[in-house]
Specification:
Layout (H helix, E strand, L loop, with lengths): L1 E10 L3 H12 L4 E4 L15 E2 L10 H17 L4 E2 L3 E5 L7 H12 L4 E3 L1 H7 L9 E5 L2 E3 L1 H14 L3 E3 L2 E9 L2 E8 L6 E10 L5 H7 L7 E10 L7 E4 L8 E5 L2 E5 L3 E3 L9 H12 L10 E11 L18 E7 L2 E6 L5 H16 L24 H8 L7 E3 L4 E2 H9 L7 H8 L11 H13 L3 H19 L5 H17 L33 E5 L3 H12 L3 E6 L21 H10 L7 E9 L5 E8 H4 L9 E6 L7 H8 L2 E5 L16 H8 L2 H12 L7 E5 L9 H9 L3 E4 L6 H16 L3 E4 L3 E7 L2 E9 L2 E6 L2 E4 L10 E2 L5 E2 L7 E2 L24 E2 L19 E3 L12 H20 L19
Parallel strand pairs: 1-2, 1-12, 2-9, 5-14, 12-20, 23-24, 23-35, 24-31, 27-28, 27-29, 29-30, 35-40
Antiparallel strand pairs: 3-8, 4-8, 5-7, 6-7, 10-11, 11-12, 13-16, 13-17, 13-18, 14-15, 15-16, 19-20, 21-22, 25-26, 32-33, 33-34, 36-37, 38-39
Length: 934
């Protein structure tokens, strides 16, 4: 067991702990700081980012107010680079009590907090998003501070004075000894335990301070108050907005980086580890945001988290006070020889808390050196100016992001990640890098950047590929925790996309072995295997351009129908990896008919039958059919595969792939003679595929690969080998002299885009009408019959008429179903009833990549055996309306293409039968008999 000795052991790496380590080290003490996790992973990393002016506490807690304004000014002076000088506004909304305002103004004056009343016009000039019905507005000197930046800044300063920072070391024992304290530290990421002999211990463990004190046999009555915050996906304001009323839930909106954070609630809890987020808290935050910004409730909520406040009242002082009634000032408690605790307070006052705790310890140890942390700036190379949100954008626009951009949302570059990884004495987790750099904290929540960062981590620390992928798996799971309470609307679509990327394209759920194959019962409509009848000249209208809609259009054209396909977007084909999961529908005539159509196009030819193919991470993915140029990637003897990536291109890591699949990974440079791109790393897969359509580009790539061969039998490339030229891939294989196969990579998918483009061109050549970018808004009902649909087109509404209609708009991901935070799910065009759980807690399981999938995948429309959606009365809503694809209730998430192709075939068969019949006997329905889902 390793042993250390020091003057002071600081327990807790939150804001107060790192400030105390810096203070004590500056006073000449030998300091060790230990935290059971990374720095600022407790309350200091789970707050809203507000550097308080103190105005929030001026009326009810003037002592805290004075401390806040004092420390606000000090932190701006000593560490301006971690402060964004946003300023703050206190706004009186329509329902806020007018009587509070005079008392607040006087209390701020008494605490020394500057206030300036603004006209509503001036306030809205500064912040246009503010509501027009606010009654009064005052400016105060609030600011924004990043808790992670603060933690690292003070920790580095402490290390500069000789302190030692030990993360992921949990204090499991504290034993008083003759000359101080002996602590046992257990390594939480492997490694042996350590002992630390200290003359004194400072307990700065925040919510866990009572547990730490108990290790030494002392009582410390810390009360726990949980608060929930939500990050919205845009920066609504550039100024901190506070409500001008007594402190309450959801009355602070803070611009933090590229987002806005609204908070917070106050709920008494029984554990410092209680980070529960309840549905009412989410709704309350959104409602309170709406009170200051019109439309706030309809915006996309990005992530929710909870932090636990450590509240403390000295014994005998207001013991019955709870929640917001407890003062936000702090206490320094000396338990006896060798141990001092500091509890309460706020991040804004962390430096002051550290100073008073250090004063107590120095007095006990006979140290006379004064505190200098308020008088002198933090040492270091940081610029002596306030943090500016635009710095990263300026660096990006002027080419100063070194090594390429990895996280687009937060503008994090490769060099930043490499430097952050190198700063650790052990391989960091991706969550460590998130706190350091804001990696994965933007709208995609790590959907794209996390896999790139995992490759950089593997390379920088020479990790086995499996270890890097476990780090990625952990990061994906952690990101999902904060997103799960907010999964509705657009944010739900984002996480469904992330799930598709990590499950389908990357196969991350296969990391620990094959996924279990659930028993999927065939739906009743799949029992009919009869062919599609001929319907020459009848009009079939298809709504949606995913695989189901496009396949149905092909089947309809082949059956002789006059086809109109109308779609708002491009469908999910351009996001899927290109192979086919068919499940129990593998022997349905729908897939067979579609693969027969594909056979006419060499670049699309499909090899049917079960096989195992590599994912973009080199994991083994079972598939039921695959394009011929992916099928060549089936498992081969070790060493036979060469995986090729491209230098500075971020979306495929050949070494990471080869480390899991077997073989060797190399990178080759993009040819200098190719059409240039200002940033090679920023080439999308489709842009790179365009390069492969050029013969000179392919020849140069083939030359470089031939020179790097070491006896391999085949070559794998990311799936970018030509977009329009069907000879691109076979020509490259001929020039290399070996079989070549494609490996799925991050979206947009080139195989999916090839298929989409070919389908569209074929439909147009065969007389179909294809309208892309035109949303269908409502049904057109005439004489009780569904006669057409209204389409928003070129600023006006047009009517598309037909004999049969096929709805293939996709489920919750595709936009065919809408959802909201109250648990409602609706079909927006026809107002069809949706089979769905009404409690959002039941929509998703705990893990994004749960091998069972999620209940939300099964939400959709109930249909009859002919795939006609049912109305509230259990009858077909219209006899000539059909549905297919992921819009259907009970969809199997592990056989998406099987569902698309089989249901498209079956629905088109039903539509063809109806279109050929006399429609005069259709049931009567009113033209108003539809809902808009509101």
């Amino acid at each position: 067991m390793a042993e250390f000795d020091c003057d002071v052991l600081v327990i807790g790496g939150g804001a107060t702990g790192v400030c105390a380590a810096y203070d004590l080290a500056r006073r000449g003490q030998r300091v060790i700081l230990a935290d059971r996790n990374d720095l600022t992973t407790g309350t200091s990393g789970r707050f809203h980012g507000l550097l308080h002016s103190g105005a929030r506490y001026a009326v009810n807690d003037p002592e805290s107010a004075r401390e806040c304004i004092q420390e606000n000014r000090i932190l701006r002076r000593i560490a301006p680079h971690i402060v964004e000088d946003t300023g703050g506004l206190f706004v009186a909304a329509a329902r806020d009590p007018e009587s509070y305002v005079p008392a607040w103004i006087e209390a701020c004056r008494a605490a020394g907090i500057e206030t300036e009343e603004l006209s509503l016009a001036e306030a809205r000039r500064r912040e246009p998003a503010l509501r027009a019905d606010l009654r009064r507005v005052f400016a105060v000197p609030d600011g924004a501070v990043d808790g992670f930046d603060l933690g690292h800044a003070f920790a580095r300063a402490a290390e500069g004075f000789g302190a030692r920072v030990l993360t992921y070391r949990e204090v499991t024992a504290l034993q008083p000894v003759a000359d101080g304290m002996r602590a046992t530290l257990a390594g939480r990421r492997g490694g042996e335990s350590q002992t630390v002999a200290a003359r004194w211990v400072l307990n700065a463990a925040g919510p866990w301070a009572g547990r730490v004190a108990a290790l030494a046999g002392h009582d410390l009555d810390v009360r726990w108050s949980r608060g929930v915050m939500i990050a919205m996906n845009i920066r609504w304001v550039n100024t901190i907005i506070n409500r001008l009323h007594p402190p309450d839930d959801g009355d602070i909106l803070v611009p933090v980086g590229t987002v806005s954070v609204i908070g917070t609630t106050s709920v008494r809890v029984d554990s410092p580890d209680d980070n529960t987020i309840e549905a009412w808290e989410i709704s309350r935050m959104l409602d309170e945001g709406e009170a200051i910004i019109a439309g706030f409730r309809q915006a996309r909520a990005l992530r929710a988290w909870a932090g636990v406040r450590p509240l403390y009242e000295p014994p005998g002082q207001d013991e019955g006070v709870e929640g917001r009634g407890v003062k936000r000032t702090f206490s320094v408690v000396r338990h006896g020889p060798g141990l001092t605790s500091v509890v309460g307070g706020k991040l804004t006052t962390a430096r002051l808390m550290a100073e008073k705790a250090a004063d107590d310890i120095c007095a006990a140890l006979g140290i006379t050196a004064p505190c200098m942390t308020a008088a002198e700036p933090l040492p270091g190379e940081e610029p002596r100016r306030f943090h500016s949100l635009g710095r990263r954008l300026d660096a990006l626009e002027h080419g100063r992001i070194e090594g390429g951009l990895i996280c687009e949302c937060e503008m994090v570059g490769r060099r930043q990640i490499e430097d952050a990884v190198a700063a650790y004495d052990r391989p960091p987790s991706l969550d460590d890098l998130r706190r350091d750099l804001r990696l994965g904290m933007g709208p995609c929540q790590g959907g794209f950047c996390a896999v790139r960062a995992a490759g950089i981590l593997r390379e920088a620390r020479d990790l086995p590929a499996g270890e890097a992928l476990h780090a990625l798996r952990d990061f994906v799971a952690e990101r999902f925790k904060g997103g799960r309470p907010l999964l509705w609307g657009q944010h739900l679509r984002q996480f469904l996309l992330d799930e598709m990327i990590y499950r389908r394209t990357l196969g991350l759920d296969l990391l620990d072995g094959p996924r279990p194959q659930p028993e999927a019962a065939l739906p009743p409509w799949a029992a009919d295997r009869s062919p599609i009848p001929t319907v020459a000249g009848r009009r079939v209208v298809i709504i949606g351009a995913g695989l189901a809609g496009l396949a149905a259009a092909v089947f309809a054209v082949q059956a002789g129908a006059r086809v109109t396909l109308v779609t708002h977007g491009l469908g999910r084909l351009i996001l899927t990896p290109g192979h086919f999961q068919l499940g129990a529908l593998a022997d349905h005539p729908g897939p067979a008919a579609f693969f027969e159509w594909c056979a006419a196009f060499p670049a699309l030819a499909v090899e049917a039958g079960p096989r195992v193919l590599p994912t973009g991470l080199g994991l083994a993915q079972p598939v039921d059919a695959a394009p011929v140029w992916q099928a060549g990637g089936a498992p081969a003897p070790e060493g036979e595969t060469l995986a090729v990536g491209f230098s500075r291109w971020r979306d495929f890591d050949p070494a990471l792939f080869a480390g899991m699949w077997g073989g060797r990974g190399i990178q080759v440079a993009l040819p200098a003679g190719a059409p240039d791109h200002p940033n090679g790393w920023d080439l999308s897969p489709t842009e790179l595929a365009h390069r492969f359509d050029g013969a000179a580009f392919r020849a140069e790539i083939a030359r470089m690969v031939r020179g790097r061969l070491r006896g391999e039998a085949r070559v794998g490339f990311p799936a970018v080998l030509g977009l329009h030229d069907p000879e691109a891939l076979p020509d490259l294989a001929r020039q290399i002299g070996l079989p070549v196969f494609e490996i799925p990579t991050l979206p947009p998918s080139v195989p999916g885009t090839r298929l989409f483009n070919t389908l569209k061109r074929w439909l147009l050549r065969h007389g179909a009408r294809v309208q892309i970018g035109h949303p269908v808004t409502r049904p057109v009902v005439e004489g009780g019959r569904l006669a057409g649909v209204a389409v928003a087109s070129a600023g006006r509404e047009t009517i598309v008429r037909g004999d049969a209609f096929l709805l293939t708009t996709g489920g919750l991901y595709g936009g065919g179903l809408h959802s909201d935070d109250r648990g409602r799910v609706w079909e927006p065009i026809f107002g069809l009833p949706v089979v769905a759980a009404t409690d959002r807690a039941d929509w998703f399981r705990e893990d994004l990549l749960d091998p069972r999938g999620h209940p939300v995948h099964a939400f959709g429309l109930a249909v009859d055996s002919a795939l006609r959606p049912l109305g509230e009365d259990g009858r077909p809503a219209w006899t000539n309306l059909f549905a297919a694809g992921h819009l259907l209730a009970g969809a199997d998430p592990f056989a998406p293409e099987g569902l698309d192709l089989a249901s498209a075939f079956a629905a088109l068969r039903g539509a063809a039968q109806v279109a050929a019949q006399d429609t005069s006997q259709l049931p009567a329905r009113s033209s108003d008999d539809h809902r808009q889902g509101a």
